[in-house]
Design a protein that fits this description.
This protein is α/β, with parallel strands linked by helices. Helix 6 crosses helix 7 and helix 6 crosses helix 13. Helix content is 42%, strand content 16%.
Length: 370
């Protein structure tokens, strides 16, 4: 009997010990510290739910070509079908002036497509929201604002544009100074300068390369260009039309739009990359300060810079991304053939001088070179 009693007591002890051990275990069967909270379980399904719940409006001011806007907004709405996107297309300088005028009551949420110079000015005037997106480390310091008020979305080399029905890469102007030669008189058509961020950048770069501290040399250069310019087109569409009609056979424009018009719209356009190098414009984006739909603007921001989106836009829309973490071999053939030789430009200094230089050009040079 004593032996049986001993075993009964021992069995009870083992059962109590097992129960005590179980109270020290979490649901997964692993021991946890009483003071440690379990990790929050955030799954891709949770993220998808958040994305699917996005709704409301998103108002975009953009300098992008309409075909680009339709493509990207369509992609965005596939992911966020309940976000109603409205956009207004205008030149980068016009966007700056409009956002500036609406500062007290912003009407736009997102600025999509602005020159580095315009974005610097907007940041200094407190027009853009400081925001550090998830891709911050993938964009070089040279392509973003140190306070996160704008990020370069893509690079736009500014090149010489030609009508490929009349000229070839070998017979067109090979460098900037060639544009001043007598053989190109009345052969050049220019997009209206003051309203265009692209043209303001090109013209300011031409002054800078002659010597930023002595803009008079640059002004003389622009007088020579004005002498050979047959007409100033009011907008990109009008510029393309004049070139197609051969009212002019040469222009100055950004590489991406030339490729878009040539490859997607079958226009007779080609480009010549200037031998001395090109001003490579950082085409940037930013959230308007005090935007009414700030959260949707942030969603669009992140979407634009998604690596898969960037690769698709490079393939289909000839964009050169600023993200440094996309392998060159993953980029399309046209990109791999590029030699992006850049003019040496102090962009901050040029941004400080741009308004002064362009005002002088408009008042004292435009149309007076004949």
């Amino acid at each position: 009997m004593k032996r049986k009693g001993f075993f009964s007591v021992w069995l009870v002890f083992l059962l109590l010990l097992a129960a005590a051990c179980n109270t020290d275990k979490g649901e997964s069967g692993t021991k946890t510290d009483d003071n440690t909270k379990p990790e929050e379980n955030t799954t891709s399904d949770d993220n998808a739910t958040i994305e699917n719940e996005a709704s409301g409006k998103l108002v975009i001011y953009t300098g992008r070509d309409e075909s680009v806007v339709e493509k990207v907004v369509g992609m965005f709405n596939e992911k966020y079908p309940d976000v109603q996107v409205e956009h207004l297309t205008m030149g980068a300088q016009q966007i700056l002036e409009r956002v500036r005028g609406e500062k007290a009551n912003p009407q736009a949420d997102f600025w999509w497509g602005g020159t580095q110079s315009a974005m610097m000015v907007a940041a200094d005037e407190d027009l853009l929201l400081p925001f550090k997106p998830s891709f911050d480390n993938a964009v070089a310091d040279a392509y973003k604002d140190p306070e996160g008020r704008w990020y370069g979305e893509m690079l736009l080399p500014e090149v010489i544009m030609i009508n490929s029905d009349v000229l070839t890469k070998e017979t067109g102007p090979q460098d900037w100074d060639d544009l001043l030669k007598p053989e190109w008189e009345d052969k050049i058509v220019i997009r209206g300068v003051l309203a265009s961020g692209t043209m303001r950048t090109i013209y300011s770069s031409m002054i800078y390369r002659q010597g930023a501290d002595t803009p008079e040399k640059g002004y003389e250069w622009l007088k020579g260009l004005d002498k050979n310019t047959k007409d100033y087109a009011q907008d990109p569409t009008n510029l393309y039309l004049k070139l197609v009609r051969q009212e002019g056979t040469v222009s100055l424009w950004n590489l991406q739009d030339i490729l878009l018009q040539s490859k997607l719209n079958n226009q007779p356009f080609d480009y010549i990359y200037p031998k001395s190098g090109a001003p490579i414009l950082v085409d940037a984006v930013g959230i308007v300060n005090n935007a009414k739909n700030e959260e949707n603007a942030k969603l669009f921001y992140e979407f634009l810079f998604d690596p898969e989106v960037r690769a698709e836009l490079a393939e289909e829309l000839y964009q050169i991304p600023t993200r440094s973490d996309i392998a060159r071999e993953d980029m399309p053939d046209w990109y791999q053939e590029l030699d992006l030789k850049a003019l040496d430009i102090d962009w901050e200094k040029m941004a400080d001088k741009e308004a002064e230089w362009m005002e002088h050009w408009d008042s004292n040079i435009k149309g007076k070179g004949k």
